[in-house]
Amino acid sequence: MASSNVKPKSISEVVSRRIFRILILCVGLSHLPLFAQKKNERYIVQIKKASSPITIDGKLDEATWREAAVAKDFFSVLPMDTSFAKVKTEVRLSYDDENLYLIATCFHLLPGPYMVESLRRDFNFGKNDNFLLFMDPFEDQTNGFSFGANAAGAQWDGIMYQGGSVDLSWDNKWTSEVKSDDEKWVFEASIPFKSIRYKKGIDKWGINFSRLDLKTTEKSAWAPVPRQFPTASLAYTGTLAWDKPPPVPGTNVSLIPYGLTGGTNDYVKKTPTNYQNDIGADAKISLTSSINLDLTVNPNFSQVEVDRQVTNLDRFELFFPERRQFFLENGDLFGNFGYATIRPFFSRRIGLNAPIQFGGRVSGKIDKNWRIGAMSMQTSRVDSVNLPAQNFSILSLQRRVFARSNIGLLIINKEAIDNKISLDPKKPNYTDHNRNIGMEYNLASSNNKWIGKAFVLKSFSPNKNGREFTHGANLTYASRKWVISWQHEYVGKDFVAEVGYVPRVGYVKVNPQASYLFFPKGKVVLSHGPLASSTYFLNESLNRLDDENYVGYRVVFRKQSSANVYISHNYVRLLKGFDPTNSGLDTIPRGTEHQWDAINLDFTSKPQSRFTYATTLRYGGYYLDGKRFSFTTDWGYRFQPYVSLALSTTYNDIQLPLPWGRQSFWLVSPRVDVTFTNKVFFTAFSQYNQQKDNVNLNARFQWRYKPASDLFIVYTDNYLSQNFGVKNRALVVKLTYWWGLNIKK
User: Fold this and answer.
1) Residue 583 placed within a domain
2) What is residue 501's DSSP assignment?
3) Which stretches of the chain drop beneath a pLDDT of 70?
């Protein structure tokens, strides 16, 4: 026992010390002038102040547009990036004291109608003919904004982070219009300066334009982007050159009050109808042109779509993404620290079991090199479960180094207020506090071929004074043909992140991966090639816990359908009892070892068809020398641009020895989206979950009666799957209004 206690401590200390050295070295290097030349700096489009008023009507008929410089001669990105685009696109920009204006003329190459799913805002990129703008107002090649539309006029807007990711949950005020004829479709937009963040005095912004034309399967960009990267990659933006620095928008104050009414019936507990009438408000205040203050009082998120259910056959907690608008702008400053399964901060922990009373957040760019995020949220006490009132405070600082890399600091504090010890065994007790501190280095080379991360975390909790360190590091090289990566992690057994998502502790993980692509000259297959991956979990004494090894082959066709096949070998040594069906029948004993082989097949259809589908099949072994067969399918049909139908199904058939025997679980989720206009939407979907014996129905009507102002009507039902007996039912009506006040300096 003595040796097993010493060895894990030495592992954590040695690796943590190495990570600290890397981070300290990066902090020192951040002061050196080692910024690489921008890849596409020779691609420049000029922007001049408007000489005449501009009406947003999708028509190229103002004098300003006739005088504006034209960005054209786009480059093909897909299927191949070796020539100019076949589909022609032209873009013009202008501005006045209040707005940035853009008009994009998207010409057709082949006859026939455009292809879109619906008029739904923030559409699926790959299933819609679309035009997108990516802009980098700080020229840091890391953060920015994206705006655009599909060919039917559905809007797209998002905030950009990590050099090429777009968070479409971000929402702001702007206007656009799309007009089309047999030769082209035209997108015209007005983006208020007060809706975006930028530093005053800067007269050069990073910018790129992206076009997807599904009839030709061509994706193109104005400034060339290698095919292995998204057109959103800010490493490959060109330059928007202003005739003079854009105007300072003044102090922008937006108040967003809401009113809500509704009721809930609980038929299981047979309680009276719970009527709800509520008011609250958010506020957005621009402290500078690039730093925003967000405030909220008594927020309510009843309009947020319910989580998509899954059949849970996992040993660890499942992850469901954040959907609440307040937490999303600059959310990467808080929520992207660590890895997907090592998140020291996960905003869904706030208000999970207790209502939020109020909160505030400051976030944005201090200058070209520094970003800041600070948030404090207060929740109420819930006496029924002895949950104390709690304060959640988070501080994040990020410093740019080299061309596109950065170093980050994160501090998290969860504090209980008036925490009371309960003597009732049915009511849990809660810790007085939990704190986390961490540093992170994010690597992104100037050409985006090398990306990586290294981080270290330390938690502080009552009655914990042992292995509370966590660290991880990864490095990926991506060329046109090769993708090679390495990742390793260590999570100490005493590490606690109560405001995070860390489903597993007390392990070491290593994960190498590699893939290669061939590009044949035929007209059917675009690319194909092998891939391999190994994932090993070890305990802190470096003894084997779990591992998965697989090899596969993938094929991408020129019409953008794809197929994959891979075989895998799995090994698991259980650290605690586990029910392999998660149905409550029995558990497999701790310490038992299990291994099996499996084959997986998946296929995704081409996006050009009105009918689309994707399917994944798995067959192989399972725990206790059992068998598991599963398939997942996603079907879709569109009556463009107004109606989109979808059906998702998951089936698992498991064969095990008694007491489980043969178990099967269906999860079926039909969905209908009706977009009457690009401002009026109706969505209804149901979820039949055999594992949970539940049928859920959710219907939502949304009317965007003014930019960023909405009326929501949301209806939710839950039934027993056996006899469709009602469990609970709720109806909510919510009205929001965005009231903007622009204070000139």
Assistant:
1) no
2) B
3) 1-37, 249-250, 329, 742-745
Enclosing H/E stretch for 438: strand 433-444
Tokens 């990073």: give the residue.
206
The whole-number pLDDT of residue 31 equals: 40
Contacts with 587 (C-beta within 8 Å, 6 or more apart), sequence order: 577, 578, 579
pLDDT at 9: 47
pLDDT of residue 17: 56
Q: How far apart are CA 95 and CA 652, in angstroms?
A: 56
State how many domains the chain has: 1
**Which pLDDT score is estimated for 1?**
35
As a whole number of angstroms, the distance between CA 528 and CA 405 comes to 32
CATH number of the structural domain spanning residue 238: 2.60.40.1190
Judge whether 223 lies within some domain: yes
Closest C-alpha among 205, 227, 165 to residue 442 = 165
Which residues make Cβ contacts (< 8 Å) with residue 518, sequence separation at least 6? 481, 527, 528, 529
CB-CB contact of 283 with 256 (8 Å): yes
Q: Which two tokens stand for residue 41?
A: 């700096």
Q: Give the pLDDT confidence score for residue 21 in this predicted structure.
A: 55
The kind and range of the H/E element at 469 are strand 469-478
Residue 252 lies in a domain: no
Position 671 in a domain: no
For the chain, how big is the Rg over CA atoms in Å?
27
Q: Which pTM value belongs to this model?
A: 0.83
- In the DSSP assignment, the letter for residue 610 is S
> Looking at this protein, which amino acid is placed at residue 402?
F
Distance CA 668, CA 265 (A): 25
Render 142-170 in DSSP notation, one character per residue.
S-EEEEEEETT--EEEEEEETTTEEETT-
Tell me how far apart the alpha carbons of residues 692 and 722 are, in angstroms, rounded to a whole number: 11
What pLDDT does residue 742 have?
Answer: 61
3-state secondary structure 66-88: HHCCCECCCEEEECCCCCECCCC
**Among 174, 148, 8, which Cα is nearest to 89's?**
148
Cis peptide before 33 (omega within 30 of 0): no
Helix (H, G, I), strand (E, B) or coil at 133: strand
d(CA 696, CA 721): 9
Q: C-alpha angle with apex 413: 412 to 415, nearest 5 degrees?
A: 160
